[in-house]
Design brief:
2 copies of one chain form a homodimer.
Chain A lengths: L6 E10 L4 E8 L5 E8 L3 E6 L6 E8 L4 E5 L2 E3 L6 H13 L1 E13 L8 E12 L12 E6 L1 H9 L6 H15 L1
Helix pairs in contact in A: 2-3
Chain lengths: 181, 181
Amino acid sequence: MKKFEEKTTHTTPIFDGKIVKLQVDDVILPNGKAAKREIIKHPGAVAVIAITNEGKLVLVEQYRKALERSIIEIPAGKLEQGEEPIVTARRELEEETGYGAHEFTFLQAFATSPGFADEIIHIFVAKDLYQIEEKADLDEDEFVELLEVSLEEAQEMVANERIYDAKTAFAIIWFAMQQAK
Amino acid sequence: MKKFEEKTTHTTPIFDGKIVKLQVDDVILPNGKAAKREIIKHPGAVAVIAITNEGKLVLVEQYRKALERSIIEIPAGKLEQGEEPIVTARRELEEETGYGAHEFTFLQAFATSPGFADEIIHIFVAKDLYQIEEKADLDEDEFVELLEVSLEEAQEMVANERIYDAKTAFAIIWFAMQQAK
């Protein structure tokens, strides 16, 4: 896990934002030479595979400024400081979809962009859903539209790139494989 | 594709690095209110599922400073300015593994972190491999170790999180599903 370790000799903080921080680390490479690494610090995030009592997968469409387009994803959101991922998962599912879930199970975690960012996404599966009576508010800068599709439709949407983000594509395919076992 | 579009009124460049750029966009939300978006600009990347003539998947282990650990990935690298992804795929496979391939096919593309970055990864499948006689040099700050595993072993490594990054996990599972059809 530490093979080819790069030791930090100095960290230069560049930006401290609402979502990300950026720093440049001076490092010593395994061959003793010096190099610089540009690193995005992100608090981490959760994403939720929510299955309705009719067996449909709950998706949300939202505008992603970085891509300058709207995309279709599973409900997701970033961790607040010191928050357990399961807590974030419950909150984001409620806020983005109006669903609560009696059953939450952890599925998998992964790094999204290890070449430049430390973001880890924790995937949960939510079942035994119920409608929240007083739907929690979205963040004030968030606008989403719900879709409910079958797992077969979702896999088709991965194949034709209507689903276009790594967490959603991986989560759908991985979950479908586990179900098929 | 433009649902809930956020119009940019001003862009503040923050950082222009070797790998990433960071900017903060002032936007107008669909409800007319103003907000800020922190955006990482990345040139995009390729990743290669390379299958040896013995049917093994070629993996590389390397240190990822952002995660402060070494991880096991499929060969990958970022696009140079204006470069076609297939060209990057050939170069990165050769540099990181010493393999060339007579057959390259495009598999899928996806966004890795649409919440804050524009990075798109293009996945290719490389078959009919051959050893490069004079192995191309790695970038001078790159150190990698090769592994060759069966597709079954690779899927097991996703399940137990020895494979821990989105592109590799998705590519392995997606490729395995296509093969099984």
